[in-house]
């Protein structure tokens, strides 16, 4: 199933690039799948991680398509990880923070891997681009992006605090957005 998910995601994301870069988009879902594979051996969860952006970002990919191609469970995990792009940035990000507080463990796992991959990109590019980096995002204010990543950290802390992926995520949030003393109490 994992090999099929890699092939499906590769085809679905063909021609897409990471925001503001020339890096093929597929590197992100592959990294998310790799991170999730450090947290579980469950092929459905790993497959959902690989497919996590297909409903949100790929034309013609729906929950029903994923259920037919993979399984109902994979489709549900991907659907829960998908944002409603018709909403504003603040609405979407506030919903994601709240959703990940109480979402099923598998959805939270994929969410952690997704956000860790994203913050790794920020950490790689920020020293090179400086403040110009924030212009690649819909929300161009560093402090608001920091608010989002800190909020996610608090939503994911319970259940993942001892995981290496969470510790790396937390470190990179502090490194790139500054230490928020209230989150360490």
Per-chain topology:
Elements: H1 2-12, H2 27-37, H3 43-50, H4 54-57, H5 63-69, H6 72-81, H7 89-102, H8 105-129, H9 142-160, H10 164-177
Helix pairs in contact: 1-3, 2-3, 2-8, 3-6, 3-8, 5-6, 6-8, 7-9, 8-9, 8-10, 9-10
InterPro entries: HD/PDEase_dom (IPR003607), HD_domain (IPR006674), MESH1 (IPR052194)
GO molecular function: guanosine-3',5'-bis(diphosphate) 3'-diphosphatase activity
Pfam family, one: HD_4
Structure explained in plain terms:
The chain has 185 residues and is mainly α. It has helices at 2-12, 27-37, 43-50, 54-57, 63-69, 72-81, 89-102, 105-129, 142-160, 164-177. Helix 3 runs parallel beside helix 8 (105-129), helix 6 crosses helix 8 and helix 9 (142-160) runs antiparallel to helix 10. It is globular, with a radius of gyration of 16 Å. Residues 25-119 form the HD domain. GO terms for molecular function: guanosine-3',5'-bis(diphosphate) 3'-diphosphatase activity.
* Rg from Cα: 16 Å
- Tertiary shape: globular
Instruction: Report mean pLDDT, rounded to a whole number.
Output: 93
Q: How many strands, what sense, and barrel or not for the largest sheet? A: none
- Report the CATH superfamily: Hypothetical protein af1432
Q: Which spans have pLDDT < 50 for at least 5 consecutive residues? A: none
Fraction in beta strands: under 5%
CATH class: Mainly Alpha
H/E element string? HHHHHHHHHH
Number of helices: 10
The tally of beta strands, per DSSP, is: 0
**Portion in helices:** 55-70%
